[in-house]
Amino acid sequence: MLEAAALPLPLPVGAIFVGPLIIGAGVLVLIGLGAMYLSGGRKQTRRLSSAPGAPGMGPGGQQGQSAPVDPRDSMPFDQLRQQAGSLLVAADEAVRSSEQEILFAQAAYGDEAVAVFREDIEKSKGHLRDAFRLQQQLDQQPPSEEAQARSIVKQIMEHCEELDASLDAHRQEFEGLRDLERSPGPAVEQLDERLTGLGQRLQQLHAQLPELQARYEGEPLSGLEKNLHRTEELLSQARTQRDTARSAAEEQRTSDAVVAIHSGEQGAGQAGELLDSAEQTISQLHDARKNLDVGLAQTEQDVAQARATRDAGQAPELAGPIAAAEAAVARVRRTLDSEDRYDPLDLLLGLELAHRELDAPLNSVRDRQAKDRRAREMLQTELLTARNQVQSSQDFLRSRAHRVGTTARTRMAEAERCLSEAQAFAETQPARALDFATQAKTLAVQAAQIADRDRAEENLAGSGGFGGFGGSGRHWGGGYGGGNGGGYGGGYGTGYGRQRSHGRAGRRMMRYGMRHGRRRWF
């Protein structure tokens, strides 16, 4: 067994914000390592394989030549896996930043103008999903042979390279579409409109908060309050960048204006995501309250059926689950009858768990049609709690920004995939959908736990850098909006939305990075 493959690799990412147009030293380290093994290694392999004298190339080949060797095959496995983890984190960040860049371009130029760039994003997401699926396989079911594990890691790296190629496919066209260096003024006004709309949404959510605080308590409400507070901070920072960009544009300091525009857009994008999450939380709290009534009725109905089955002598093992379900029902009714604040999602989860313990033995005496009916009835509640857990874990990981390592991101991606599968099978295969929803909740909880553990380990180590990534302490920029060289990681990939700067403008941007590159956002 490979111990390195069997154990999750903690890869905490330092939460240091760097201006979107600045390439950090950590990125240059990745260029030196990743590009050599990903790009150069395979190109060299192809050249050797196609050479006339290479083995297996036909009658013209010379005897005694050795087969081409992939440089990654001689790299220590732990180092190879660590490098793949770094690339995977950078790829994830590139896709997210690229989506934000596309949103601003879409608002300015319309859906048709950005259609081809959205296709690039979707292709990149496909590669990212495949890479996370392989990482999940490596974490959960590590191969017993190092060669097999090494092959999986290399596939992860190849998906990252293909993702980079997808983002780079129309990068120049995107830069030509959104030439901020030529005319930053319209982008400043567009940013101002976006911030105004976000501010109005924030006010509307604040207006609903007192009523929610009077009725509910618990983690969902606490998370909502934190989201709103963090949104206020992000909008304040984004407005400052908007004002800086406007002044720089008026003074013809276009490079400084571009830096501020991208910083403001990034903050606006993050604020928009948090507002979306806050709105979903409010909706889920109300839905959970409604589903409590439905859940009570369903549980009491199944308790009655289980009693009849037990009394008929068909399943004496139902006695314990019946008692637990009755206790859960009593707890929910007692809470709802009181005037105390409560967590509807927590009550719903407790009722669901007790109901599931009852359901397992009860299902053994039901026919197939009854099982599908029961699964369909339970599915809406299970999907609701799964969506809430996935969203809650997403918020938790998002709050730690770039300090989230590969393992936590992988669990999160798998949770999102399982939730998507549950929704896809909800109508045709409710039992299967129910299983996927349960898996989504479990994986989402694991993602948050691993992310919290990574942060704790980083705090104990006293490190502000990448930890497992080499300790550079730099922010991974890139994608549609990467730095000089663009892409995720800068230089390793290109991507859209960031002009390469030269001469005096480039030096000004580098000075901006020296002054502001270590400002912490989180």
By secondary-structure content and strand pairing, the structural class works out as: mainly alpha
Number of distinct helices = 15
How many domains comprise the coordinates? 3
Strand content: under 5%
**What average pLDDT do the residues reach?**
76
Organism: Nesterenkonia xinjiangensis
Protein name: Putative phage infection (PIP) family protein YhgE
Keywords: Coiled coil, Membrane, Transmembrane, Transmembrane helix
Describe this structure in a few short sentences.
This protein is mostly helical and 522 residues long.
Task: Based on the model shown, name its key terms.
522 residues; mainly alpha; 15 helices; 72% helix; disordered C terminus; transmembrane; coiled coil; membrane; transmembrane helix
Topology summary:
Elements: H1 3-6, H2 25-50, H3 77-109, H4 115-140, H5 146-168, H6 171-177, H7 185-215, H8 219-250, H9 254-311, H10 319-337, H11 344-363, H12 368-399, H13 406-425, H14 430-461, H15 503-516
